[in-house]
Structures are given as structure tokens and as C-alpha cells.
Amino acid sequence: DVYEGAPAPVVAILSVVPKIAATGALLFVCYHIQTRYGVRWSVLIAYLALFTLLVGNLSALRQKNARRMMAYSSIAQSGFLLMAILNFDLQNLPVVLFYSIVFVLGNYCVFLLILHAEKNRIEKIEEYAGKGKKYFWWIFSASVGLIALAGLPPTAGFTGKFLIFTQLWEQYQVRPSALWLNLLIVGIINTALALFYYIKIPYFAFLKEENTALQTETTSKKLRNFPVLALVLALLLISLFLFPSMLMGWLNSFNFALR
């Protein structure tokens, strides 16, 4: 309800910043507790990640409002962030940061479209029908963001989820447990499941005919501004897929300095 009622720029911040900050804090706190006292939190966090993924994705599937869909999407993304910190090793920090950066870029691509679409009184997903022809670059940029959040190539979202799944598989190899394997399988299934709601906006925008009853003439010009920032973010997401070392090299250096 807060996502639906608050201004779009505020929602864009709320959707990513608190989750990334909480994940970072959890990683450092649990790492130090585990190092000093030998208390392992992995099983608890694994079950929390499972629950978060399922609740976020299953709830997002039912949404017809773009904002509410992104609200539940951000819950599901939190589940992947929890998967990234499962063994509470600071060596995994670059993976967490890489995924967080992709999460931010993808989310802002989508919310830039939502912000400008709402100026044209477009709120429900079905109201994007036919808009891909008129506002191609807006929808294209948001589509790249949605594909990145879904974890598909050719975006850095694929790289981020691949790193998380690889990390989880390595953990399973070191400490074989049905829980890690189940979490890996559920993560992959949820990645496929998320695609069904992430493609809704591109599907309606490019493949559905516009409903003339929903057209508005008074504000239609507001959506025609060229989306420079959204395109820059979209190109970054594609570039980080093609050249992930461009960011991972810097993150590894940052992690080394931090340690």
C-alpha cells in the first residue's frame, strides 16, 4: 500500500536501499558473531531466503498494478540477496555488491518508466497496451531493466544470479546438505517463475493493441521526452553482462582493502 500511495521517486528508493543496507548489516553482524563465537546462522537464513523468494514471486504474479508488482518483486530480490550471504564469508562481498548494483540499475530503469507513465495516467499493467510503438525507447529501457531483474541474458542480471547459484553450489560441494540443494533448485525455479510477471509490461506494450478508451490527450506529450537516464542505465546493464570484470575487478579490490 505504501508503494502504491507514495511518490514514485520515493518508492524507487524504498524498493532497494533499505533491503541492500539490511543485507549488508546482516552479513557483517553474522560474520563477526560466527568468527568470534562459532554461531552459525546459515540454516535460519536459508529458510528465510526460501520463504522470501516464494512469497515475493507468488504475490507478484497476481498483481495488476505496476507499482505493486515491483513491490513484491523487490521482496523476491531480497531472497536472492539472502542466498548470496549464506555462508557469511566476506570473500562473498563482491558477489553481494555486484548483485545489489544490478538490482539498483534494473529497478531504476523500471521506475523511471512508471514515473513518466503515471504522468500520463497509466498505472495498471494492461494500460501499457500498445504503448511500445509510441514510446519505444521508454519501454525498451524498462524492458532491459525487467530482463535484468528476471536474471536473463544479455543483461548483468544473468551474471549476478549465475554468481549466486555458483557460490551456492560450491557451498553444497563443501558441506553437502539437502537444504542447500533444495535452495538452489527453488532459486532456479523462482527465476523462471519471475519471468511470467516481469514480461507483462513488454508483452502488453509491444504485443497488445492500445485501448483507445484509455488514451489521454492532455498529458500524452509528457511521455515523449527522450529517456536519456533510463537508456544509460539499460546500456550499463548490457555492458556489465558483456564485461563483468569491469565491475568485479573494482569490487574485488574494494573487498581486499576492506579486509
Low-confidence stretches: 216-221
Helix content: over 70%
Rounded radius of gyration (Å): 19 Å
Question: What's the overall average pLDDT, rounded?
Answer: 84
The end-to-end distance, rounded to whole angstroms, is 40 Å
By DSSP (H or I, 4+ residues per run), the number of helices equals 13
**Strand-pairing-aware structural class:** mainly alpha
Proportion of residues in β-strands: under 5%
Question: What profile does the largest beta sheet have?
Answer: none
Count of distinct strands: 0
H-E order: HHHHHHHHHHHHH
The shape is: elongated
Question: Could you please describe the fold and organization of this structure?
Answer:
- It is built from 13 helices and no strands.
- By secondary structure, the protein is mainly alpha-helical.
- About 2% of the residues have low confidence.
Task: Write a concise keyword list for the protein shown above.
259 residues; 13 helices; elongated; single chain; mainly alpha
Gist of the model:
With 259 residues, the chain is mostly helical. It has 13 helices and no strands.
Write the layout of secondary structure elements.
Elements: H1 2-5, H2 8-14, H3 17-37, H4 42-61, H5 66-84, H6 93-119, H7 131-134, H8 136-150, H9 156-174, H10 178-198, H11 200-207, H12 228-242, H13 245-258
Helix pairs in contact: 2-6, 4-5, 4-10, 5-6, 5-10, 6-8, 6-9, 6-12, 6-13, 8-10, 8-12, 9-10, 9-12
